[in-house]
What does this fold into?
Amino acid sequence: MALDAKKFLPSSLPPSGQVRIALIGDVVGKPGMNIVCNAIRWMKQHLKANLVIINAENAADGTGLRQKEYKRLIDAGAGAITLGDHIYRKREIIETLNRESNIVKPANFPDSAAGKTHCIVHTDLGHPVAVISVLGRVFMRPVDCPFHASLREVEKIPDAIKLRVVDFHAEATSDKQTLGRLLDGRVTAVLGTHTHVTTADEQIFPGGTAFQCDVGMTGPYESILGREVLPVTQATMTFEPITFDVAQKDVRLAATWFDADPTTGKCSQIGRIQWPLELIQQWNSEEADFRNRLPL
Ligand SMILES: [Fe+2]
Ligand SMILES: [Fe+2]
It folds into this structure.
């Protein structure tokens, strides 16, 4: 039976003069890449997203990102790419990080680490958007303070660029709320990634900053954070080294969108979507049917 697409879409359009920006949470392996590369155009058409930012730290077979996945995401319509603790797992991404202007490293990494600490991209309406990534320190390798680094990075953004998105790639919800409050009124959105679990706390803070602890995972949900269940439970119980393959079933896309005024950078609405693969396939086949019915 066909899915009711309306149930998967926000009830309101972006208010007049505002832009809608979406962040897709951690894309995991081939199942994540497959859904995201098929879904971006529907995010533009049905969700009315003017810019799609993607956290792609798990895109290359579950860990890291390669040039080929980077190119597929950009070719599919992604406007900017953020990463996280797995940023350098595939060494070839270093060249891409140094060369390309729409992909960032965490701003609290050392200066000598490959990549840019922020990037400026544009919505399809031409509005500039600053994108910043920062890494938490709980369950992560030690990095500079994400709070001081975020403030320093925000200071570097030209005043004229009001739309500013921060991807806080971190474990601790307390740290995420703290950064959101610290940056409230200074940036348009502070959205969390890394845990692969969507939180139901999307909100707009008093200063106009959109916030959510974690956007969640784009990949297979019949899994443990995107990996096959059995190897993870076995390794946990036996301490044996077992490969954690990327799972395959129940593939979904998780993203959070927000509407903001490009002249002030203030957010007016925030919401989240979780699209099953079947919904994307349905839209693809409806479009194919429509094309087939067109007169030659
Ligand atoms: Fe991560
Ligand atoms: Fe991740």
Summary: Residues 288 and 294 are 10 Å apart (CA to CA). The first helix runs from residue 29 to 45. The two ends are 30 Å apart (CA to CA). The domain at 20-218+251-283 is CATH 3.60.21.10 (Purple Acid Phosphatase; chain A, domain 2).
